[in-house]
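Still learning folds. Look over my entry:

…
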Amino acid sequence: MFGKMVVVLISGMLFFGCGQKNYQNSQKSFASELNRQIEEVGVDSAMGWFREKKDLRDFSFQESELNQLGYRLLYEFKKTEYAIELFGLNVQKFPKSSNVYDSRGEAHMKSGDYGPAVKDYEKAIVLSEKKLFHHLGFLASKSYAATKLPNDDKKLFVAKGNWANEIAFVFVQGGPDIQLNIDTKDALHMMPNSGELLKVYPFQSQMLNPEILVADPVLTPSQSAFENAVSVEILDKTLTYLRQKGKKIFLIGHSYGASICLEYLSTKVNQAEKVVLMGLDLNEDISSWDSLKSGEYIRWKNGKIPYATEVFWWIPDDFPKKGSFNGVADNLTSLVRSNMKKNYLEVLREEDFDNIVSVYAENDEANGCKSREEIDFLISKKVTVVGIKGNHHSMMNVHFMENLYHHLIYGKSME
């Protein structure tokens, strides 16, 4: 998959998982043996060995190992045709895996052979239990259909950790993405003793209804506003559920997730003790968005100078699905813009500022650096304002999240 390859080189050899041999059946790992051939005789000769040995029963075949080595051929050695062969073997060995088709599709796209690329991606989508973000561009466009919420509020969020805790940490992730990204690297898992915390992750509108991102025509401002209101309703119902369980709530939002938190503050009765807004201004400068072309979004050089770039920059201009990808990008932009066009410095009630912690990065490439005027205004409202060095995601680290935890729980300074 795009951006998912992780390869570790040790003394010139590729390290796969727990070693070079599959001890489950004592057979040699085909991928490790092929990699040894590559190191000893070179890629071209090793591929001769590959064609001779790939159908023998003398080896064990592991999907992840073959996939990693395929990416090594594709990106390290720049041998696209060889990568397609290796990914093809993975398809043969694991025909029910979405990932093997996804990887071969990527290799076909790199080769410029778009027909097989589209077929592989479409097969990957059929087999995938969860749609990945880049799958959206391969889906057929549909007329907009508003998101409907399930009747069971417990289906509006995912909870991890200890329900016996009095305190619940609620994290609204950035994006907009089409699935929750919960793992050891998400913000709440970086807090002290995270395994013992109660960590809650609300869904967002486009997660429950990804088809709004393939809407054609592109989402109107009113449709985007409705979908953002659905995300706010999900958050409100989640917090209400937690309060009914007697929980004290700390709400944390990053980027687009922070905009949902802001809209929650401005339209609902706040049920959180503190609301932490990371990587987002309360008065975003989106004036540069007016010049965007289809498929583009805005980034900020050094956090100060806006410029346009493509969302799906890796999709070639002559790719047959290019228009579909541009449509997805435009729907994303419409959804994000709906919240960010508001000046929450003016919209929020006076009492709302009492509970806010505002965190910004000095070189934020996604939203630009917070203005001096906004910082001074927030300080005048006695808001805790924290500036950190780095980019849009620089607060997503153990050190910062530990400091935030101690600030929320014990009132320690964030300075």
Remarks:
- The two ends are 40 Å apart (CA to CA).
- The first helix runs from residue 30 to 41.
- Residues 1-24 have pLDDT under 50 and may be disordered.
- The chain is about 40% helix and 15% strand.
